Amino acid sequence: MILSRSSRNGLCTLQRTYWLREMTWRTCPPTCWVRIPFCAHSTWDTAGSRRRRLMVAAGAGLGVCTILAYGNHHRQGAKAELPVPTPTPSFPRFTREEVARHHNEANRVWVTYGSEVFDVTDFLELHPGGRSKILLAAGGALEPFWALYAMHKQEHVQEILQEYKVGELSPEEPPPPSPDDPYANDPPRHPALRVNTSKPFNAEPPPELLSEYFLTPNQLFFKRNHLPVPVVDPETYRLCIQSPSGQTLSLSLQDLKKNFQKHEVTATLQCAGNRRAEMNTIQNTNRLGWSVGAISNACWGGARLRDVLIQAGYQPGDEGHVSFEGLDKDHSGTVYGASIPFKKAMSPDGDVLLAYEMNGEELPRDHGFPLRVIVPGVVGARNVKWLARITVGPEESKSHWQQKDYKGFSRSVTWETVDFSKAPAIQEMSIQSAITEPSPETSVSPGELTVKGYAWSGGGQRVIRVDVSLDGGKSWQEATLTGEEQLPGRAWAWKLWQLDTSVPAGTKELNIVCKAVDTSYNVQPEHVGPIWNILGVLNNAWHRVHVCVGEN
Ligand SMILES: Nc1nc2c(c(=O)[nH]1)N[C@H]1C(S)=C(S)[C@@H](COP(=O)(O)O)O[C@H]1N2
Ligand SMILES: [Mo]
């Protein structure tokens, strides 16, 4: 539970504790630190009073606080209530050349951000993106790396970094050259999209537009990119498939279009983080706060993965996993990757596509131009875009996104206790539904009321029913479902639903709730609290929308 490290940082010995932001006390100017090794995860989003109680309990009860003073000793209270300390002249000055000498663990690992110098050696193991990523910046500026990953531009990241400050750059040092924007070649996007982060681009359509279309228009389809959108020349593009003999089958876009029969599959894609915003209100996961729109539906056209695998020499009875690599890369050249079971890839009923068309149009750049995998019924993360390489082997993809992300954990697992090897990678998703109209915290007129939404289940399970309540779950009405007929066990597309009802006279407010049922009679859990997890994935709790009733 307790992660604390002692280290020399050139100024004084500090008790270093990563997840302890709420539990860090500091004097102002920052010359004294009081650290309580206590798992702060449980306190992040609790009210101030509970936090104070926990701090007292931690201080008195655990008796493990380390107090190391350097300078004056007056304690000013919880850090959360203090302004972030401004740089003081007490920090030593360094040249960029001096910083550059600290480029490995033997010499300590230093980085700069703006004009400040940080010793991040003790943070290497704690870096959520892995130590190898942070080592790329060793001895130099963080700016070019942070330009790639927008999640660093958050207050809590700055706060963590401040804990590792060891100095400042000499005033005569020039500022770092402003990094080339790795996102400069990203495509233009539709202004209606609600942008979660722009670099990388993560955006969802407004809910009321989402339920307007059974097939989500390409421009409105949610976009989930981990990296810049690669620029691909369709003339020179090749898909490489490793064959069982060890040779490589290389296919051009023309080969894929001409030599393999074209199939069309209507399939819904849902990000594992869909509806994370609701989880973040329980306890912040510090990950993309998707509302209900990290899901969309399209008709995909392309070659069957099965046909291409057979062409490469694989047999239906083979086993293992099929791994995919994209063309989108980070600074270290690491590409996006994921895998699916061979069985799903090869099954004639699996309908896995190598798609070059989306809703009858050429696959848009944001969605993987010129080629992406579509794995119907399976979490968005495995539907690798900008597909470059396919390999088959006994093990799952080694990628970060297969091994260290997109997995589900118990409510009680924390970043300190998580063991990623224990949980299987998410593949098929569970039953899901959400309300898209009316919008939360708006006002509806008394009388007629239309409630709209979507429902979908993973693994090809058909949605058979959507129940809607206007009174928080006391009484229920069945919504009308619309959608396409799909084959049993291959219901890859969502259902849109609608309930035309009336607001009972005298009602002041409505607590609208929806829940769906699939062919296996899988249902959604009532509350999000018990299914909260550190990654904020797989939220399929009953969706709730509160509105007021009044004359508009
Ligand atoms: N190459 C590549 N493939 C990728 C991703 C990515 O960042 N790079 N994101 C994945 C995730 S997490 C999701 S949810 C879907 C989103 O697909 P979309 O942007 O077409 O909606 O793509 C998946 N495939
Ligand atoms: Mo995702």
UniProtKB/TrEMBL annotation:
Cofactor(s) this protein requires: Mo-molybdopterin; heme b
EC number(s) reported in the record: 1.8.3.1
Keyword Heme included in the entry's annotation: yes
InterPro entries: Cyt_B5-like_heme/steroid-bd, Cyt_B5-like_heme/steroid_sf, Cyt_B5_heme-BS, Ig_E-set, MoCF_OxRdtse_dimer, Mopterin_OxRdtase_euk, OxRdtase_Mopterin-bd_dom, OxRdtase_Mopterin-bd_sf
Enzyme class label: oxidoreductase
Chemical reaction(s) catalysed: sulfite + O2 + H2O = sulfate + H2O2
Source species, domain of life: Eukaryota
Keywords: Heme, Iron, Metal-binding, Mitochondrion, Molybdenum, Oxidoreductase
Start and end residues of each stretch annotated as Disordered: 168-201
Pathway(s): Energy metabolism; sulfur metabolism; Sulfur metabolism
Main subcellular location of this protein, as a coarse class: mitochondrion
Gene Ontology annotations of biological process type: sulfur compound metabolic process
Protein localization: Mitochondrion intermembrane space
A molecular function GO annotation: sulfite oxidase activity
PANTHER family assigned to the protein according to its UniProt record, in alphabetical order: SULFITE OXIDASE, MITOCHONDRIAL, SULFITE REDUCTASE
Protein name: sulfite oxidase
